[in-house]
Amino acid sequence: MMLPDTSNTAAGADAQVEDTQREGDRFTDLLAVTSRHIALLAAWVATSGSLFFSQVLGWPPCELCWYQRICMYPLALILPIGILRRDRRLHLYVLPLALIGAPISLYHYLLIKTNLFTPPRCTGGIPCTVDYLDWFGLINIPFMALTAFLIIIVMMAAWALLPAGASATETTPARPARDWSSIAVFAIIATVLAAFAVGSALVI
Q1: Residue 67 in this model has a pLDDT that exceeds 70
Q2: What's the pLDDT at 173?
Q3: Going by C-beta distance under 8 Å and a sequence separation of 6 or more, which residues neighbour residue 159?
Q4: CA distance 2 to 38
Q5: Which one in 48, 80, 89, 175 has a CA-CA gap of 20 to 30 Å to 181?
Q6: 143: which strand partners?
Q7: Which stretches does DSSP call E strand in the chain?
Q8: What is the pLDDT of residues 123-147, one digit of tens each?
Q9: What is the spatial distance between Cα 188 and Cα 6, in angstroms, rounded to a whole number?
Q10: What percent of the chain has pLDDT over 90?
């Protein structure tokens, strides 16, 4: 009695496993290169956006807005410095601020959109329930701040969970990825500042 030849089946299964592993490695490599830069983009868009609203459009921030700024503005400096220094512990400096800012943004959003909370007594002169923006009945300034904080949290959590080998591009001088990483930092900042300047010129 002849036994069925399973060698081809086993080889095919091994090839599928190898393909899956290669795809996983490519995703890990992509995440290692882009996660911090995505967080940087979110921080700079949020920072420049808040300054655009207050300094260009003339919308005074309320007290809760200031608390969110206190958490967001330092990230616009910490992230590029950490990336340029190739600091593997960057998440340790970024996540605490983002994890404090996100609940404040969520609370501010629910305060405006629902009746779950009693409005606080804001001392800044601007009520915390003022809604300068209301796109599609959903999107306002606290919503955008919350989105930015969540993007930063997810990207920094992904960076923290990456295996040590995935960040080899950050410690090997011979690899060109290090240069591209630095160039991307300046490109992101320059693009956001250019957009801020153009938007300001159009409004003024």
Answers
A1: yes
A2: 43
A3: 31, 32, 35, 36, 39, 90, 91
A4: 58
A5: 48
A6: none
A7: none
A8: 667 888 888 888 988 899 999 999 9
A9: 53
A10: 55
Question: What pLDDT is recorded for position 65?
Answer: 93
The two three-digit tokens of residue 96, written as one number: 């605490």
Q: Are 62 and 105 in contact (CB under 8 A)?
A: no
- Contact of 90 with 83, CB cutoff 8 Å: yes
Closest by CA position to 98, among listed 64, 50, 148, 62: 148
Cβ atoms 128, 63 nearer than 8 A: yes
Cβ–Cβ < 8 Å for 30, 38: no
Q: CA–CA separation, 155 vs 160, rounded Å? A: 9
Joined together, the tokens standing for residue 71 give 């958490």
Q: Count the neighbouring beta carbons within 10 Å of the beta carbon of residue 178.
A: 16
Q: Nearest-CA neighbor of 94 among 140, 177, 9, 35?
A: 35
Residue at token pair 């779950």: 116
DSSP secondary structure code for residue 125 in this structure: S
Structure token pair of residue 90:
């960057």
Residue with tokens 């921080």: 43
Measured CA to CA in angstroms, residue 90 lies from 35, 77, 93, 105 at distances of 11, 12, 6, 23
Q: Which amino acid is at 138?
A: L
d(CA 65, CA 23): 42
Average pLDDT over residues 176-182: 70
Tell me phi and psi for residue 135, to 5 degrees: -90, 125
Cα torsion 119, 120, 121, 125: sign = negative
